[in-house]
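In this section we walk through a basic example: taking a raw amino acid sequence and producing a predicted 3D structure, encoded as discrete structure tokens. The instruction is simple. Fold the sequence below.
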Amino acid sequence: MKSEEKLRYSESELKEFEELIMSKLQKSREELQHLKDSITRKNTGSDDNISSLKSLEDGADALEKEQLNQLAARTQKYITQLENALVRIKNGTYGICIDTGKLIPKERLRAVPHTQQTIEAKLNKSR
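The resulting token sequence is shown next.
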């Protein structure tokens, strides 16, 4: 008799993923706080009166601030995705592909713990 394809991860497997996600969530929240602190420091610049040099510095500061803001937005999006993955663990849908209904391989979930698609489904969607 052929063994049935596994439809869900066990409680112990889900616990492993939950710990991985919690670890990534903590690191991401610390990174976001660091980015916010850096952005705040950029807002409180010095008062130099050398206009041409100041203008160049302002341009560089504005670019750096924009890059920090983009990184902070990306980090916030990642945090939200990780938090949503925790919700899926709690409601029993974690690790199940939203497109195919198949179990997402553990290796993929370890690499991208917030994913909702198998690699095949993701590649098919991008075509």
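Looking at the output, two observations stand out. The helical segments are 11-43, 51-91, 106-111, 119-125. The chain has a mean pLDDT of 87. In the next section we compare this with other chains.
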